Amino acid sequence: MSAMDLDQPGAGWASGPQFDPDLLRLYYARLFPYDQWCKWMAYNSDEPGTGSQLARRELSLTLADDVYIRYQCFTNAKEMKTLMTKRQPHKIDIGAVFNCVPRDHLSVKNFRPESRELVFDIDLSDYDDVRTCCQGATVCKKCWQYMTCAVKVCESALREDFGFEHIVWIYSGRRGVHCWVCDETARELTNDARLAIIKYFSVVSGNENQAKKTQLSSPLHPSLERAYRLLEPLFVEHVIGENGQGLLASSERWETLLKTLPEEIGGQISKHWEKNGNDTSPLEKWEALKGLCVSEKPNQAKKQKRTSVPELWKYETVFSQCYPRLDENVSKHRNHLLKSPFAAHPKTGRVCVPFDAKKVSTFDPTTVVTLRQLAYELDQHSGDDVLDLDKTSLAHSVRFFEKDFLHPMMRAWGRARRDDAEYAAALKGDF
């Protein structure tokens, strides 16, 4: 029996539902990367059977009709495949590693999470007050550049400021991205430490009724200086122009921005641009506004302050538009659930694939593979003597996950174990 009946004239993966029970059944039976998933979640643990990290990891499943079951677990890839093909979950969420097998949680008095990746969840719907192309769950290549901004800032801070190395970015399947920080030090963070890290990234606040959504102070933290250097070119390319969000391309949008300036200055510019605004490009307007910014001196007269633009204004403007907007609740607790990589989104049918943070600006969420496309590709190569995965465009994402994330992390585990063994031998004098 073929994967799907797509042989009628005009049929193809682009037509019809991208997510349905038959497509899901096919995906779990033939394509979900169970081996790679379990190698990741096992973290090179030597613990046997139910004592392993993999066995103590909670998996939460949402079945058809929103039936929700928690505390699912397994000890290897074969057991995971059996569970997935039996339950056919519409949604898979990953929880913490607990101090016992999760299915025994009711019989354990002190059931508690012991470790969990540091995770971030960033949704484009949280940028609805600044993006003009889409709203809600709708996403296009234009507003995806807000995710480019978020990924670049978070990547630089996580690696340079916190020293994390094993980080994987996942497309959420619909309107955002998830970040998994998998270093051992990250997985062992307490709730208080997780909250401190999320606060480190908390720059934008307020709501759609506030023109100004950041409040900075001098001297600016070095991480914010670096973030500005990363974000200002993206702000110019993707936010101010008419090919982007149009912040400085129409009077309606620039009036909102001018309201964040001192009233006297904003009013003068508004009148000037109202008459001559079409004579200058969005970039020229932005350069002119930046030219007004001056460093404030402690002994500066109040009158001067009212008629000048503080230097921090340009930072606050760029950050209000482009700085990452993280969901604090997802990150601050060890036992919070987050959608699994390689799950399929039930609304779009798109697979939650990993992507290269260095190439985030060229990632196109509108072309991410769907379950229906995968079924079509399997049918097109039904006679080929290769692995099912290699018949599909999902293969690229799985290979990237292996090559750029999983294998480097496993090599690091190996080095750490050798170092530990050599240190132990040195202590004993056993060389």
TrEMBL record:
Keyword terms of this UniProt record: DNA replication, DNA-directed RNA polymerase, Metal-binding, Nucleotidyltransferase, Primosome, Transcription, Transferase, Zinc
Any Pfam family matching the protein: DNA_primase_S
Database matches in Gene3D superfamilies: DNA primase, PRIM domain
Protein name from the UniProt record: DNA primase
Biological process according to GO: DNA replication, synthesis of primer
UniProt GO cellular component terms: alpha DNA polymerase:primase complex
Entry EC no(s): 2.7.7.-
Gene Ontology molecular function, alphabetical: DNA-directed RNA polymerase activity; metal ion binding
The species this protein was found in: Pelagomonas calceolata
Enzyme class: transferase
Protein family (similarity comment): Belongs to the eukaryotic-type primase small subunit family.
